[in-house]
Amino acid sequence: MAVTSIDQAAVAVSDQAEAAPVRKTGFRRRFARFARNRLALAGAICLLVLLVVAVLAPWIVPYPDDVADSLNFDAVLQPPSLAHPMGTDEVGRDVLTRVMAGARWSLSMAVIVLAIAVTIGVPLGLFAGYYGGALEQVLMRITDGFSAIPALVLALAITVLLGPSLINAMIAIGFVWWRSFARIAHGQTLSRKQETYVTVAKSLGASDMHIMFREILPNISSPLLVAISLNAGYAVLTGTALSFLGAGARPPTPEWGQMVAASRNYLPGAWWPSLFPGIAIFITVVSFNLLGDGLRDYFSEE
Amino acid sequence: MRFLRRVLNMLVVLLFVSLLMFVLVRVLPGDPVGAALGDGATKEQVEKFRVQMGMDKPLQVQYLAYLRGLLDGNFGVSLMEPRDVGTIVRERLPATLELVLCSLALAIVVGVPLGILAATHRNGPVDQASRLWSLTGVSFPNFWAALMLQLVLGAALSLVPITGRITGPPPEHITGLYLVDALLSGNFKAMGDAARHLITPTIVLAVGPLAQITSMIRSSMLDELAKPYVGFSQAVGMPRFLINYKYVLRNAFSSTLTLIGFLFPLMIGGAFVVEKVFAWPGVARFGADAILANDYNAIVGVTLVICLFVVVVNFVTEELYVALDPRIRLER
């Protein structure tokens, strides 16, 4: 296995060079190790492409007017063709254009949901694990209570009560999702708080806040990163499901779940406006899962 | 003692859920009165309705009254259908249970052997396929998978009905589960009818759990196979299949049990979407409609019943887990 021996050589060389840290080589080496997992690399590349499409959508879509609510009644529900590779929808908009524009909403969904969930969940898990006792009991019972309600059900209820909109759906899902991160942070903190660096920091008189957020948190960041990547896919799935049920994005927003909901009435005759947004969701979620899976392997080797 | 403490824990979780949902539906800005009476209601009508529903009283008084009602089996009146929420839930629960149980059964019956095959033939074609499947199977948006299956199996191939639970008259009511009732009363026409309706929603709901069970069984069996006792048993001449089935599999089943506790709430959540797409007359579709219509009592009632099931399933799987694995019992 040539790859392995080169890699081992690289490890040996960089071990010698440890005294004089060369950041770039370190990153390259790490990236090379991550990239050995072809599936994970494919996931990362897919997400990068999605990100580029999401950012550049207004400039690169084939029919910029079709992103919102333009009406082309002379081109309604045309099957895929050269001019419209994914066909046109029920009011004659180019489906490819809208699928590309939708990348923006699904990626925002993932980012906002996880930002909220991590901000609430990780500190709660850290507190519960670090302080223990009554605080831990109360916090973890609350987490149990939240976990007993299916995520989709609670998120749907909160979204509708806040008023159906895409941003409210993001807030609601984020508010439901913190429990996963509280659990992980709690478990990880429990296993780390006995370690030497914590004892040392304590004996040096570091504050609890310093120990939790400066000593423990950096050390549990790898499992958290894996969880973030794996949860991003589920967050996107839940978000599109809420929009499909009519609680998230509203027409004419080109959100994938909402697009499937709007086009399902034209099944079975016109399958293309329902098929392609669904494939886009699938590819996005698979990419997040591949990346998360690859990261897990990467960190467990470490 | 341990048993009592766990039951008490369950009750605390349920009480918390009831409080959370009760407060959420009343504190967040949704408008139940407007939703119930429509836009044309006068001020007096709105006021009268609020008094009728007890919504003029302070929140804690309302909550205590609600809890007292629950003790009498009174869930409050639904706004969508003016009947007690408990009655509606009882009528609709069997449809959802039938769907979820069939999906769980499908996921286990296919997922467990697939995981075993993958682990025992590591890096073979089955293993590669199962690994790919465990990453992709959890990534389908279920509403879309449902529509696409309806399109292919229902509309294009006409193999199965597209929506609904049964076409002909339902079998005699015994348990409410059509398949079981039809079997018990020997009504095989209704049984076939119900089974044909069940196929597509069951597949859609089972796809994700099937992938998760496969990968769980695979990885826990690989861990187990790597342990020294397996090599030792082989060295003393124990046949491979005996090792696999007598020791390794038993350990793998324990991990599947924990997974079921985790999958159950996910599947109920999935049923909210799947039942909507298949016009399935279950409690999950009622719950989804209730949420979308701001039907307060129905939202709290359905959530509570669902959580009761989730908590009980978790309890049972954990007890079974302990019963199956003597090491855990000894530690206590």
TrEMBL record, chain A:
Pfam families: BPD_transp_1 (PF00528), OppC_N (PF12911). Keywords: Cell membrane, Membrane, Peptide transport, Protein transport, Transmembrane, Transmembrane helix, Transport. GO terms for cellular component: plasma membrane. It is found in: Cell membrane. Residues 103-292 form the ABC transmembrane type-1 domain. It is a multi-pass membrane protein. PROSITE patterns: ABC_TM1. The chain crosses the membrane at residues 39-61, 105-131, 152-178, 224-249, 270-291. Signal peptide: none annotated. GO terms for biological process: peptide transport; protein transport; transmembrane transport. It comes from the Bacteria. Belongs to the binding-protein-dependent transport system permease family. PANTHER family: D,D-DIPEPTIDE TRANSPORT SYSTEM PERMEASE PROTEIN DDPC-RELATED, OLIGOPEPTIDE TRANSPORT SYSTEM PERMEASE PROTEIN APPC. This is Cytochrome c550. It comes from Reyranella soli.
TrEMBL record, chain B:
The chain crosses the membrane at residues 7-28, 99-120, 140-160, 256-278, 298-324. InterPro entries: BPD_transp_1_N, MetI-like, MetI-like_sf. Gene3D superfamilies: MetI-like (1.10.3720.10). Its main location: membrane. Keywords: Cell membrane, Membrane, Transmembrane, Transmembrane helix, Transport. GO terms for biological process: transmembrane transport. This is Peptide ABC transporter permease. It comes from Reyranella soli.
